[in-house]
Amino acid sequence: MSTRRSLLTFTAAAGLAVSAALTAPAAAAPAAETPWRNCEVGEFCVYEHDNGYGGAAYFRSGTNNLGDYRLNDKVSSVWNRTGKTVCTYLDTNKQGSTWPVGNWKGNTSQYNRNDNISSLWVTVC
């Protein structure tokens, strides 16, 4: 009888565990990414994907190499909130052709610059 009672207790406990696992609430889905996130007034913001999505970096003065931010030749959208013209360059160290960006937010493909920015400076081009 002791063996039968143990078997019944084990079976009941296993059934409760399975039932609890099947009725446990699902984990919450991750929040949707916010486009153009964290770009503050006074910053030039670059994003890896169109429309302000993906990896991002934020600048008040500039950088000689977007590779330091894992964004060299990967920028697909920008937002200039500096109030000044920002000079973007095809190559690192302010080399190569220049694309001046005024007060603007949008996709770089509109100006044939998709994935073609390697350095940038807030200055007069």
What's a concise summary of this model?
With 125 residues, the chain is α+β, with helices and mostly antiparallel strands. The chain is 18% helix and 31% strand. A hairpin with a 3-residue loop joins β5 and β6.
Present the secondary structure layout.
Layout: H1 2-23, E1 44-49, E2 53-59, E3 62-63, E4 77-80, E5 86-91, E6 95-101, E7 105-107, E8 119-122
Kindly report the average pLDDT value: 84
Q: Tell me about the biggest sheet?
A: 4 strands, antiparallel
CATH-assigned homologous superfamily of one domain:
Crystallins
Rounded radius of gyration (Å): 27 Å
Strand order of the largest sheet: 2-1-4-7
Protein architecture, described:
The protein has a domain of 79 residues: Gamma-B Crystallin, domain 1 (Sandwich), CATH 2.60.20.10. It is 18% helix and 31% strand. The strands form two sheets. Strands 2-1-4-7 form a four-stranded antiparallel sheet, with no helix packed on it. It has a four-stranded antiparallel sheet with strand order 3-8-5-6, with no helix packed on it. The radius of gyration is 27 Å and the shape is globular.
What key phrases describe this protein's structure?
single chain; 125 residues; alpha+beta; Gamma-B Crystallin, domain 1; four-stranded antiparallel sheet; 1 helix; 18% helix; disordered N terminus
